[in-house]
Amino acid sequence: MSDSHLNCSNCTVGNCAHLKKSFPEFCLTTNAKEGVVEKVTKRYIRSSTDRKIALTSANIEGSYYGRATRVEETLLFIRDMGYKKVGVATCVGLLSECNLFAKIAKAKGIDIYGVACKVGAVDKTVIGLDESLKLSPGQHESMCNPILQAELLNEEKTEFNIIIGLCVGHDSLFIRHSKAPVTYLIVKDRVLCHNPAAALYGAGGYYRRLMTPDLPAPSK
Description:
With about 220 residues, the chain is an alpha/beta fold. It is globular and about 60 Å long. Helices cover about 35% and strands about 10% of the residues. The chain has two domains: about 20-65; about 70-190, 3-Layer(aba) Sandwich (Rossmann fold), CATH 3.40.50. α6 (about 145-155) runs parallel beside α7. The protein starts with about 25 loop residues before the first helix and ends in a 19-residue tail after the last helix. A four-stranded parallel beta sheet has the order 2-1-3-4, sandwiched between helices.
């Protein structure tokens, strides 16, 4: 592979973080188009919203590094940003986790408005899914409806939205249609108890199949 096709996914140095090593020849920092770094940096200064989000995130990192959990960092971010109404787009299979987070947030004075993925109860066949591909063919099976989740939260004028366990792709649609900034609290992984990084850590052992060209075969 030529250097022109190499990027951060090929880097093992990470010199951009602290400037204590040397940049690889293909580094995007040193090979970026002239002026693009400066141009983008000015966006943080010109946009009060982008600047506040960036500063708040950096302040939390500096103050709580290695001490605050993801749940705590999310609550700290909401507090420090001054958000009063927060939306949650949750998988219906993680309603218990959503309910618990809502109770925790309420104890901190945060108003949570949650919308489950099956909202609207629209059957999967309405958008063209073959009946045979349902988990239970022949029965009503509601589609995940991330666009409706986003629209309902938009109507509520939530200032910040949190994803709890939406499927791959459904989460993309939710982010695409959400008017408010979005973060994850739980990333869905049905096999690994919602810890997708475990597959990467096990790629040299139990999950060595990940290093082959093949993807899992469908169950049907």
